[in-house]
Specification:
The protein is mainly beta. Helix content is 8%, strand content 59%. The protein has 2 helices and 18 strands. The chain has an 11-stranded mixed β-barrel with strand order 1-2-3-4-7-8-14-15-16-17-18. The chain is elongated. The protein starts with a helix and ends with a helix.
């Protein structure tokens, strides 16, 4: 098991992480056996990232799977996702000068003159995802192997975002009778001519910029096509409710020349809470190297905890019992 885990970690051995953060992923999964070969699954989840400081995603997925052969399963599903974005950090805006060769104003030393900063506010965005799976499973001794190929199409719904426009370093002037929604030492001061404000934004030089202007930015809809390949290995410990596992999953962007955009390694265990394996708990550590779709390029160190509940219809139970009886009679 240790050798297998080392091999799955090998793609990350030479990787260097410029920035990383930690988080917690929680999920609950209910699977229902319609027949002995056809099943349905409902899954809900939520994610806490940014070093456990930000709740930035929740989703609900519904899927169907069909056991085509003893070793091959076909699946498809839909996932409704809400993603949080922290927006963008303030970017510099320079004063314009139509008489300047570059169209920007310069001071006597030739330096660009700062007019202010633009900052994009936080927002939530809806994503609609459909996926199709082919999963192959086989055993070697007490080891279980699975290889899943998933095609994933994600549609990003359009969303409107607010851009805050910090402008001109101004002298703070008293505004008698003005009621500020912000408490603190600046609550009774606003820039001249500005009816409402939030601020100040203090740049790296200690200069304060205020804003009373906002701009609505429309983010258009877009779509992404991914191919995700997951190889997983588990080990069945005799007379033990714990089943350790490891997995490796790269993701390829089909809309960008099949480029590798993300890699995940997971190691943990499934814990059967009941003898009939109807209730189970999954606990794992997940490491993600590569781009996150909404919140940047930080590598992730995640604690993943999931609850699984499985049950069968009367038809599925009867079919499984008949197969078990027929198998015993052949011995």
């Amino acid at each position: 098991m240790r050798k297998v885990f080392f091999l799955l970690l090998l793609p990350f051995a030479l990787s260097s992480t410029a920035q990383s953060e930690s988080g917690l992923w929680l999920g609950a999964d209910a699977s229902y056996g319609i027949t002995d070969r056809l099943g349905a699954e409902l899954e809900i989840g939520g994610r806490l990232e940014n070093d456990f400081a930000t709740f930035n995603r929740y989703d609900a997925a519904l899927g169907l799977d069909f056991k085509a052969t003893k070793w091959l399963k076909v699946g498809a599903g839909y996932d409704f996702i809400r993603d949080y974005s922290a927006g963008e950090a303030p970017s510099i805006v320079y004063k314009k000068d139509p008489n300047s060769p570059d169209g920007l104003r310069h001071d006597s030393d030739g330096n660009l003159v700062v007019n202010g900063y633009n900052a994009e506010s936080d927002y939530w965005r809806t994503k609609h995802r459909i996926y199709f799976d082919l999963t192959e499973k086989w055993k070697v001794g007490r080891f279980g192997f699975s290889l899943r190929e998933r095609y994933q199409f994600t549609h990003y719904a359009p969303v409107s975002d607010v851009e805050l426009k910090y402008r001109d370093e101004l002298e703070r002037q008293p505004a008698p009778g003005y009621t500020s929604p912000w408490a603190g030492s600046h609550a009774d001061y606003v820039p001249a001519g500005v009816a409402s404000y939030v601020g100040p934004y203090v740049d790296e030089y200690g200069d304060s910029y205020w804003y009373g202007l906002t701009d609505i930015k429309d983010k258009n809809s877009k779509s992404k096509h991914y191919l995700r390949t997951r190889l997983a290995v588990d080990y069945n410990i005799r007379h033990c409710p714990l089943t350790p596992f490891v997995s490796y999953e790269p993701a390829f962007d089909l809309g960008d020349s099949f480029s590798l955009v993300r890699q995940r390694v997971m190691a943990g265990f499934d814990w059967n809470l009941t003898a009939n394996k109807q209730h189970a708990l999954s606990v794992a550590y997940l490491y993600q190297h590569g781009a996150q779709e909404e919140v940047g390029n930080s590598d992730l160190h995640i604690i993943s905890i999931g609850y699984k509940f499985s049950f069968d219809s009367p038809l599925a139970r009867a079919q499984k019992a008949a197969k078990k009886k027929a198998k015993k009679s052949k011995k």
